[in-house]
Design goal:
Elements (H helix, E strand, L loop, with lengths): L9 H32 L4 E3 L1 E3 L3 E14 L2 E6 L4 E6 L6 E2 L4 E5 L2 H59 L4 H28 L4 H25 L2 E3 L4 E6 L6 E2 L4 E7 L3 E8 L11 E6 L2 E13 L9 E8 L11 E18 L12 E6 L2 E6 L1 E6 L2 E6 L6 E3 L10 E3 L1
Parallel strand pairs: 1-22
Antiparallel strand pairs: 2-21, 3-12, 3-16, 4-11, 5-7, 5-10, 6-9, 7-8, 9-11, 12-15, 13-14, 13-16, 14-15, 16-20, 17-18, 17-21, 19-20
Length: 413
């Protein structure tokens, strides 16, 4: 038998083509459905806040707050104990150097001064007596003793000759010898008296010492008397008065406080990270918080060599060449200190940089729809922005939101 041969007619071919065309929409729908299922299975892109970083020239500045530092604030008190008799100034009063501020009772101390003055007068009178009376008397007695000794020596020689010739007795000659010994002792005593009364002698030195002692006691009494008047050490303004008449003043107790006149200075604390922007002698613009419309110039005069470890700050002191009249001691002030200009710097918000205070800061960059972690190097912080010195290129999109994790799918908000 011959094999049967399949015979296809044009009508059958048309039927097959029509059936195939019927399946095309179903296949297309299935492919689209599969794609949708695949896309739905992927994590959704998270909307994030971003910033495009571009290099630009940046004028740096340091902004800080501080206060007006008085040139010198002194506390005035008494150096002895006494009752306050009078207070001559009140708070806010301007005083001059040496002006009397407080007076203490002084009657007892004044009596001591008078007593010391009388002792000085007695010591001077005694010294004058030694120089004008005792010394001339002693010198006259010395001359008399010298004359008596010459006379006694001649008498002794004459009696010795007469004794040898037998004209007088031995007793008479012994008397002459006794008179000679008396004359010699009188001369020695007269010489001692004259030496004691002369300049440099014992009596003169004693009288001078008594005078010096009396004068020293007088100076002590006068100094105590002067301490009953408490004076201003220098020109200034009375800040506080805590004493009234009748109070008992004691050493170590504050009676009033003064702010002394002198150059006005500001004291501010700045973040230690801003140290590269600060130069000695740099000019800053400052305002007092109480008078925000009155700007004045201040000059950096001192940069502390130490750092406050608890706050991470460094102390600056600035001179104010022309302070406004309204500027008062301890006023709060704000300072804006211009720094160097940075050429083509990359700045990002500080909140975008993770672990900024560590040795390995990093941030997230949006690349091809994902958050990619990028290690960076930071150099300065400028009013909420960070200068990136390495690890980032201009034109990149930095993610600011901190809740985004590395690798997450993101899209700009």
């Amino acid at each position: 038998m011959k094999p049967a041969c399949a015979i296809s007619s044009p009508a059958a071919e048309r039927t097959t083509l029509i059936n195939a065309r019927r399946w095309v929409p179903w296949l297309t729908a299935a492919a689209v459905l599969a794609a949708l299922v695949f896309v739905a299975a992927l994590p959704k892109a998270q909307p994030v806040n971003v910033i495009t970083v571009n290099a630009a020239d940046v004028q740096t500045s340091v902004v800080a707050s501080g206060r007006v530092l008085p040139p010198a604030k002194v506390e005035v008190g008494a150096t002895l104990t006494g009752r306050v008799e009078r207070v001559r100034v009140r708070e806010g009063a301007r005083v001059q150097a040496g002006e009397v501020l407080v007076e203490l009772e002084r009657s007892e101390i004044a009596a001591g001064v008078a007593q010391a003055q009388a002792a000085v007068a007695r010591a001077r009178a005694r010294l004058a007596s030694v120089r004008t009376l005792a010394l001339p008397t002693a010198e006259a007695g010395l001359k008399q003793a010298e004359a008596n000794l010459l006379l006694a020596e001649r008498e002794e020689r004459r009696s010795r000759d007469l004794l040898a010739k037998g004209f007088i007795s031995q007793a008479r000659h012994d008397e002459a010898l006794r008179q000679l010994d008396v004359a010699r002792s009188q001369l020695a005593s007269a010489r001692a008296q004259a030496g004691a009364q002369a300049n440099g002698g014992a009596e003169s030195v004693q009288a001078q010492s008594q005078l010096a002692e009396a004068q020293a006691a007088l100076e002590v009494a006068q100094a105590r008397l002067a301490q009953t008047q408490i004076r201003a050490p220098a020109a200034g303004v009375v800040l506080e008065r805590v004493v009234e008449p009748g109070d008992i003043a004691q050493p170590g107790r504050r009676l009033m406080s003064l702010a002394l006149d002198g150059p006005v200075r500001l004291i501010v604390q700045v973040d230690e990270k801003n140290l590269p922007l600060i130069r000695d002698g740099a000019l800053a613009t400052a305002i007092a918080d109480a008078f925000p419309n009155e700007r004045f110039e201040a000059k950096v005069a001192y940069i502390s060599p130490g750092i406050d470890a608890s706050r991470g700050s460094v102390e600056l002191r600035l001179d104010v060449p022309q302070p406004p009249p309204a500027l008062k001691a301890d006023m709060t002030v704000s300072m804006d200190l211009p720094g160097p200009q940075l050429r083509q710097a990359l700045l990002v918000p500080a909140e975008a940089v993770r672990q900024l205070q560590s040795d390995a800061p990093w941030l997230l960059v949006a690349r091809e729809g994902r958050a990619e972690r990028v290690a960076v190097r930071s150099s300065l912080q400028l009013q909420g922005r960070v200068v990136i010195s390495g690890g980032l290129r201009g034109g990149e999109v930095v993610i600011v939101d901190r809740q985004v994790e590395p690798g997450a799918r993101v899209r700009p908000r």
